[in-house]
Every structure is written in C-alpha cells, then in structure tokens.
Amino acid sequence: MIRPHRITLLLAGVAALACIPTTSALATTLIVDDSFADGDRAATGPLQADFFASSTSNAIESNAGSVGLVSGGSGRQIHALFPTQTLANAGDTLLTSFTFMTPATVASGNEDLRFGIFDNLGRTSASELGQDTSYSSGSPNASYSGLPGYYAELDVESADSGTDLNIRESNPSTSGRLLATSSGFTNLGSGSDIGYAIVADTEYTATLSATRTATGGLDVTTTFLGNSHTENVASPLSYDFGMLAYGSSSGAFGSSNTPGDPDNGIDITNVRVEFVAGIPEPSTAALALLATLAFAKRRF
C-alpha cells in the first residue's frame, strides 16, 4: 500500500522535475535581425540594434538597407549595442553574422577588416557607449578601455596572397581605441595561408561565435568564404556579450572617407545575433530532489 504522504511527495517531485530544463526544451533565441530596411541606424523596432560611430562621427552613415562603415584612407570603427547575453551553461553559444558589400576600391594587400563581440560592462548610457564617440592615438576613450571580448581579422587582398583568419582576445590593458589597433589584444592564433580574395563590388558574409565549454572555457570561431577557424580560451575574462564592433584599416576599402560618396567603404547589412542555449548543469536542489525520489521509490 502506498501511503498518502508518499503519493504527495511523488506528485511534488514530478511537478518540480517538470520545471528542470531538458535538451528538448532548449531553443535558439533571435536577439538581433537588422536589415536596415527603415534606413535608420537606431533601434526603431524589435530585433534591431543601436549603431554608433566609434572613432569619429564621420565613420558611419545610414542607407536604405545598410549601415555604412566610412573609411577610405582612414582607419575607422563603428559599434552596436544589444541586450547583454550571458553564456551561463556549457554549450551556450552567441552566434553573430553580418553581410558586407565592398565598394569600387579594394586594397591590393596588407590591410584588414576587423569585427568583434564584447562585454559592454554596462557602459550603455548616452554619455558612454550609447552615443557617437571619438578617439585617437593621442586621445584614447575611457569607455573602450578594458572591455572583455574578441575580434576576428580578415586580410583584405584583391588577389590571393596568403590570406588567413585571425582571432584576438582583449586584455585589461586595452588601449581605449577599440579596433583601431591590436595593442591591448592577445593574438590567439591564425589559420595559415587559407587563400581567399576580397574583391570590389562584391557581397560577403562573415560570422563570429563564442561557445562555453564543459570546462568553463570559450571556443571562439570565425567563418568566411567556407573557411573556419577556432581558438579555445581556457580562462575567459567574461561570459557576457552586449556589443558588436566593426573596423576597417586605412586604405582597406574605398578611395574617399566622405559620407555619401559611393566609394567610401563597406556597406553592412543583415546583422544577426542569436543565443543558442546549451545543456544546463543540474542544480544542487534538483540533484537532492532526484535522490529523495529514488529513496521514496525504494520504500514503497
């Protein structure tokens, strides 16, 4: 005979177990899906991000269907803020992607395109990262100093000449110039001589993701033109991400650095940020509950 209090215990246990996430209940959550169809770089609707100039107010322009990274003969950067996502469990992944259109002028070599994901450290106010900002080698911006994060680096070449994919990690001594310099970033390694070309008037898509591992590290992966490169970070500075950043070195794209000029840099569109849930580790309470239920079953 099963005693009433044991039936109550089992029913309570079943109800509690139903609240414990399972693999089948995990899903992908779309955080940002911005095609700039409204011609506005501000977040005017759901699934949009706020885009800002990083290095100078002239580094960004809004177009119908894209946001422009205006560079030309100047190295410039832009950034975007989105709701912070935390990689709390093994398998949790932040996946970002974007499409860019090259202008009529592309460097023949020795230049690069950088794109990264960062912890904004809560610096999202209109007096910090939530505005068009500026910095230079002589006047770094404190809002960018020490932001944990990662960026991928694409060699910009108009012909195949040993191009590769590179991943760097920021460290506490970041210079306050975001993606303008590799100073303050640790080189995690590069894919050697993959061999690709970035040419004029062509559309490309690139991705950058971070996945929390079972040991508490991060696997940071970038893909471009069918090539993929991953670096493992054993001791990440943060598991939070709430900012995208894009930067072009001087002369990489375009012959002009004037907003409105059709040959002034790349046009970025189809910006996506997705959070993919991993498998949560069972909590201490859940493990205790399972043990109690097992004990109760043996007593019937």
Describe this structure in words.
- Strands 1, 3, 4, 6, 11, 12, 13 and 15 form an eight-stranded antiparallel beta sheet that branches. Strands 2-5-14-7-8-9-10 form a seven-stranded antiparallel beta sheet, with no helix packed on it.
- Helix 1 (4-18) packs antiparallel against helix 2 (284-299).
- The longest helix is centred in the C-terminal third of the chain and has 16 residues, at 284-299.
- By secondary structure, it is mainly β.
- The protein is globular.
- A hairpin with a 2-residue loop joins strand 3 and strand 4.
- 10% of the residues lie in helices and 38% in strands.
Report on the biggest sheet.
8 strands, antiparallel
Amino-to-carboxy terminus distance: 8 Å
- For the secondary structure, the number of strands is 15
Helix content: 10-25%
Tertiary shape: globular
Task: Sketch the topology as an H/E string, one letter per element.
Answer: HEEEEEEEEEEEEEEEH
- Unreliable spans: 6-25, 283-300
**Classification by helices and strands:** mainly beta
